[in-house]
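User: Predict the complex.
Assistant: Input components as received:
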Amino acid sequence: MTILKIDHAGPLVTIQDQGRPNFMRYGVTPGGPMDRRAYALCHYALGQDPSASIEVSMGGLNLTCVSGGVTACVTGGGFTVILDGKTLPSWAIFELTEGAKLQIRAGEWGSWCYLSFAGDIDAPTWLGSSSTHLASDQCGVPLQMGDKIAINNTRTNATNSGELLDATSLKPSKKIRVTMGPQDRYFSDETQTSFLSNDFTLTPEYNRQGVRLSGPALHINQPLDMPSEPIARGSLQVPGHGDPIALMADHQTTGGYPKIATIISADQDQVAQMRAGDTLCFTAVDVETAISAAHDANAKITSLRQHIDDQRMSLEQKLLNSNLVSGVIDDFNN
Amino acid sequence: MYPTMRPIADTGVLVEFGDQIDDGIHAQVLAMDRTVNAANLHGVTELIPTYAALYVGYDALLVGYAEITAQLETLLGQGDASTAQGKHWKIPVCYDAEFAPDLPELASALGKSEEFVVEQHTSATYKVYMYGFAPGYAYLGGVPPVIQHPRKPTPVMGVPPKAVMITGSQALISTVTMPSGWWVIGRSAINPLRGGNDDPFLFDVGDTIGFERMTRADFDKYGQG
């Protein structure tokens, strides 16, 4: 068992795993990582199925490995990662040895990063998930200074340490794709055109539930008489103030305000990594384009996995592989 | 015009049966919910029934939009909305002053006695229309018109679990500590969000509920926690 002690945790630093989908019909937010791609690749790099990680906000995290040792991995935005005074890449795999001090701080870009361990974080579960449920006291609370985290079944593998990939290639793009609706009928043609032709800025009203955007006001053009309807991740819900709210991982399951559009799944992680003050512009696509983008995003994950595999391979393995390949070629030549 | 199907990004189909709160529309939502659930369609991940619409979540890597909507189309109208009959629950409630902080103000606003409000509250049969807001928050319809009253202008922080509340035609029993602008008129002896990981939700959408008055002595003796 490895024990970590939290020396500092900013707001909204929580335990997250894949969340608890399939309970939205009972009012339970699905939760899970804000940036699902970075989270999944973090565990992939450690050679394990996705399990509980620490999701670090821009508030940062400092911890000390007080006993034991474990291989750890950080992925996500362009955060600053410092291990015993030495700066590591933003996407890195490394060893936490007894006494090691790790600091993670907001870096040049990005709102969230993932700290995962080769082993199992000992955390409470509820409805099959360890994701902290911020809206209730059902499953943990955000991490705080003084907390101790136990990691069971730890593994170490020092030969794999190093950079996984250059995170700058993953910076979010400003152009975000949406499908219109499902309640676009509450907005005039002019308002919908304005929505698609103007920039919106992320405001500081930002948490795991969603982020309020500011831009041209999107006022509804008829009395608000809709009954509460289901809400999906990526919904752009417009309350009476006219600012759209992009709903994220901890979104409410139902709501009575109209949704002008929905961010497609391929672009949801990008919005999650934007910060207050960043601007974005929305482009409307049809559902077939959105689905094709989901396949593209999945192919991108496959190529990032390949890249991580290449990076993780030790020099010795690379040499071995190249010998094997030349051996095969020699066999063919004979 | 209804039913209609609308795409929600590449993750869901919203099947709409109407645009208002209506028992007939809601019965169609529940019938479709049961039918789609029983059909066990490939790629479908999640169903969320609400007052007038059913959200059908799907995995776009497993199934396309045209395919999923074609399958839903064939299921529309297959379910029998008339046989939508859930379980009936009798929920004991203690209406003592300590548990009913808003009962005096509500009764006074209605121009009725507190006893009248409680009698009316216990006389009705409520239906579980949908869940929302927080885990296990079941929205119940069926508050008698004579005790219907709009919500408070400002939500009150820290409403405890098991608070029995009404606003307009809606009622609910809180499950966790949350802010609320509804009128708290009693305390349920049971929390509809039970402990544990297996099936912690007492009610299903479509179930009916009646409230029964419980004395403080019985509440202290039999009430949970």
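The first helix of chain A runs from residue 36 to 45.
Let me know if you want any component modeled separately.
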